[in-house]
Amino acid sequence: MDLTFSPEELAFRDEVRAFLASSIPAETRRRVLEGMEVSRDDTLRWQQALHRRGWGGPNWPKEFGGTGWDPIRQFIFEEESAAAGAPRLLPFGLKMVGPVIMRFGNAAQQKRFLPRILSGEDWWAQGYSEPGSGSDLASLKTRAERKGDHYLVNGQKTWITLAQYANWIFCLVRTNPTAKKQAGISFLLIDMKTPGVSVRPITLLDGSQEVNEVWLEDVQVPFENLVGEENGGWTYAKFLLGHERTNIAGVGASKRELARLKRIASEERKDGRPLLADPGFAARVAQVEIDLMALEITNLRVLAAEAERRAPGPEASLLKIKGTEIQQALAELMMHAVGPYALPFRQEARRDGVSGESVGPDYAAPLSATYLNLRKTSIYGGSNEIQKNIIAQTILGL
Amino acid sequence: MQFSPTPEQQQLGDMVQRFLGEQYAFETRRKILDSAAGWSREIWSKLADLGLLALQVPEDQGGMAPAVVETLLTLTAMGKAMLLEPYVSSAILGTALIRDLGSRQQREELLPGMASGERISVLAHLEPGARYDLRRVATAARRSGGSWTLEGRKSVVQHAPAADLLLVSAVTSAGISVFTVPREAKGVSLTPYRIVDGSCAAEVELTGAPGALLGEEGRAFSAIEGAFDLGIAAVCAEAAGALQATLDTTVEYTRTRKQFGVPIGSFQALQHRMADMLIHVEQARSMSYLAAMRAVEPPSRERRRALAAAKVVVGNACRFVGQQAVQLHGGMGVTDETAVSHLFRRLTALELQLGDTAHHLEQFIAASAPEQDGARRPRADRAEHTGVLHEAEGT
Question: Which among A84, A262, A297 has the least Cβ separation from residue B286?
Answer without folding.
Answer: A297
